TrEMBL record:
This is Maltose O-acetyltransferase. The keyword Transferase applies. Signal peptide: none annotated. Gene3D superfamilies: Hexapeptide repeat proteins. It comes from Marisediminitalea aggregata. Residues 14-59 form the Maltose/galactoside acetyltransferase domain. One of its GO terms (molecular function) is acetyltransferase activity. Belongs to the transferase hexapeptide repeat family. Keywords: Transferase. The keyword Transferase applies.
Length: 171
């Protein structure tokens, strides 16, 4: 199922959209099922590789540890090599552009999506998403968070536990 053009355009433009739209729920469920499969131990490596290709069609040369999760997968881009360690979450409502030779250590969260401060809008399911850019030869230290709209330049090591906001590590 494809995302309707108006919802997709709102997401890519950084406009507010309803995150609980049925089309988005279907895509998230599909990605969740693929994540579940790739996180299972002791299964056919070729089947896991095929599931990874289906989940991350815009990523090449990737090695992913256990307990990986993402919202859609289709918004993650990388020409590799990419090393993703255990317990990594990527909330890819908008694009997550990863350079080559990126290492994502354990427990990292990369989130393009944010929610309104107003309680009623939040309860209604409104969301906003901003693309994230991570350059070449970047290491994201264990348990760091990269927030919507953040950019991390080439040859950067983000210390463990750091919260990277839009204003930090500007290009």
């Amino acid at each position: 199922m494809e995302i309707p053009k108006d919802v997709w355009q709102a997401i890519q433009d950084g406009d507010w959209y309803l995150g609980n739209a049925s089309e988005l729920q279907v895509l998230r469920l599909h990605a969740s099922q693929l994540c579940w499969f790739i996180n299972q131990p002791n299964h056919n490596e070729q089947a896991r590789k095929e599931a990874l290709q289906q989940l991350l069609p815009n990523v090449v040369n990737v090695e992913i540890g256990g307990h990986f999760a993402c919202d859609f997968g289709i918004n993650i881009f990388c020409n590799g090599p990419l090393l993703v360690k255990h317990n990594v979450v990527i909330l890819d409502h908008n694009k997550v552009n990863l350079g080559s030779h990126v290492v994502i250590e354990e427990g990292v969260v990369i989130a393009t999506v944010t929610h309104p401060l107003e309680e009623q809008k939040r309860k209604a399911g409104w969301q906003q998403a901003h693309a994230i850019h991570i350059g070449n030869h970047v290491t994201l230290g264990a348990h760091c968070s990269v927030l919507p709209g953040a950019s991390i330049p080439d040859n950067t090591t983000v210390p463990a536990g750091t919260v990277v906001t839009k204003s930090m590590y500007a290009l």
